[in-house]
Automatic annotation (TrEMBL):
CDD domains: nuc_hydro_IU_UC_XIUA. One of its GO terms (cellular component) is cytosol. GO terms for molecular function: purine nucleosidase activity. This is Nucleoside hydrolase. Residues 5-309 form the Inosine/uridine-preferring nucleoside hydrolase domain. The keyword Cytoplasm does not apply. GO terms for biological process: purine nucleoside catabolic process. The keyword Oxidoreductase does not apply. It comes from Leifsonia shinshuensis.
Amino acid sequence: MKHSVILDVDTGIDDAMAIMFAVRHPDIDVKAITCLSGNVSVDKVVANTLAVLDLLGAPDIPVAAGARRPLIEPARDASWVHGETGLGDLRLPAGSRVPEQVHAVELLRRELLAADEPVTIVALAPLTNLALLLRVYPEVADRVGRIVFMGGSASVGNASAVAEFNIWHDPEAAAIVLSSGIPLTMYGLDVFNVVEVAAERVAELAASERAVDAALGSLLGFQLVDPADGTVFSHPLIGDAGAVCALVAPELFRFERVPVQVDISQGIGRGQTIVDRRSYGGEDAVYAPGQEPWPLVDVALGVDTGAVLELFFDVVTGVRV
C-alpha cells in the first residue's frame, strides 16, 4: 500500500532518523516536510531538515518553516536532549536548497488540495502547525486521511511527571487537533521508550564508511546530560522514526481505540494526555452526566521491538539486524 505523507517536524536527532526512514521506504511518498520550533528553533529545524535530505540524496521535497512558538506560551526547546544544533554531535554540510518561501501552513494547504487522495500527516513535533492549519483553513480537514502523531503517554511523562514534550510544549494546539474529527493515531512514550538499539549496533554504524550509516550511528550515540543531577547517559532510541514504522507496519504494534483528552489547565498536570482505558463508567458518569464525549484515538500501547528495529534498519541501511 502506497502512503502519501506530509511530515511535520522539529528536526532533532530522532526526527532526522524518521526522515531517513520515510524517504527511503518504497511505499511512502513524502509530499512535503513542514517545520516548527520544538526540539530547537525553527531556523535550526529547517537547516537540519535540508541537510538530512541532501545526505539522503532525496528528491526535491518541498520544505517550509512554520510556527516559531506555541499558540500561547513562549518557545522552550529540548536542546539538552538534541544538542545545540539539534543533531547531537553530527555535523552535516549545509543543505544545497532553500526552503519554500511560504509559511508551513500554506504549504500544508497547498499539498493537501493538490493531492488526488487524502494525505496522512505524520506529526513528530508539537502540534502548533496543524492547529493553525485547522483554524485558518478548516475546510482542508477532509483532505487529511489520518494524523499519526508522536506525542503523549498513557503512563509516565518526560517533560514533566505526566506530560510528554510535544504535547507539553503546546497543549492548546494538541487539544485543537484531538477535537478535529480527523482519524488519529497516537504514538506515545509507552512505545517510544522501548524501541532501543543495542550499543554494539550503534558503534558498528558509527564506524561505517557509508555516509548515512555513519550519520545514523552518530545520532544514536549522542550522550545526554541529565539536567537534574548532571548524570551522563545514553538512550539510543529510534524515537520519532517509530511513528513512521507504525504507519507502514501497524501489525507490529498493539493499539487500543480509547478516549483521550489533553489537560490544558495551568496546574501540574498541564500537557498530560489523559487516556481513558476503563471498560465502564464511574463516578464522573454518575455525578457529572452529559459531558461531551472525548475524542477516540488509536493509542499504541505495545510493540514488537525486534521486528520494528529490523524494519527500520532494513529500510534505512539495507541491512537486517
